[in-house]
Amino acid sequence: MKVRLEPSGLDFETEAGTTLLKAAEAAGIELPSSCRTCICQLVSGQVRHIVEWPGLSLDEKDEGWILPCVAEALNDLTLDAPGAFSVF
């Protein structure tokens, strides 16, 4: 599955069972990763959080916010992740 990060235009591939944060790191993309700093907004696609309550409020969930450190892609995604940058 392909993940595109906006506004940077960076993208990376991910597999089922891999969190978005780990897949980004494997692709040389740095996302903020201290507790809750990885929060970003899902623009398109679907994710599954691997923990029952991932630390998001109901309002944040309703607004499409996700935590890439505990989220897996279910299909191709676009994320609004302004803190993302390439380490290569």
Textual characterization of the structure:
The model has no long low-confidence stretch (mean pLDDT 94). This protein has a 5-stranded mixed sheet. By secondary structure, the protein is an alpha+beta fold. It has helices at residues 20-26, 58-62; strands at residues 2-6, 11-13, 29-30, 40-44, 47-49, 65-66, 71-73, 77-80, 85-86. It starts with a strand and ends with a strand. The radius of gyration is 12 Å and the shape is globular. The longest helix is centred in the N-terminal third of the chain and has 7 residues, at 20-26. The chain has one domain: Roll (Ubiquitin-like (UB roll)), CATH 3.10.20.
C-alpha termini separation: 21 Å
Strand order in space, largest sheet:
2-1-8-4-6
Structural class: alpha+beta
Q: Helix proportion of residues, in percent? A: 10-25%
Mean pLDDT: 94
Major sheet characteristics: 5 strands, mixed
- The value of Rg in angstroms is 12 Å
Low-confidence stretches: none
Instruction: Report the CATH superfamily.
Output: Beta-grasp domain
> Which strand-content bin applies to the residues?
25-35%
Order of helices and strands: EEHEEEHEEEE
How many structural domains in the coordinates?
A: 1
Instruction: Tell how many strands the DSSP assignment holds.
Output: 9
* CATH-scheme architecture: Roll
CATH topology title: Ubiquitin-like (UB roll)
Work out the helix count: 2
Q: What is the CATH top level name?
A: Alpha Beta
- Shape type: globular
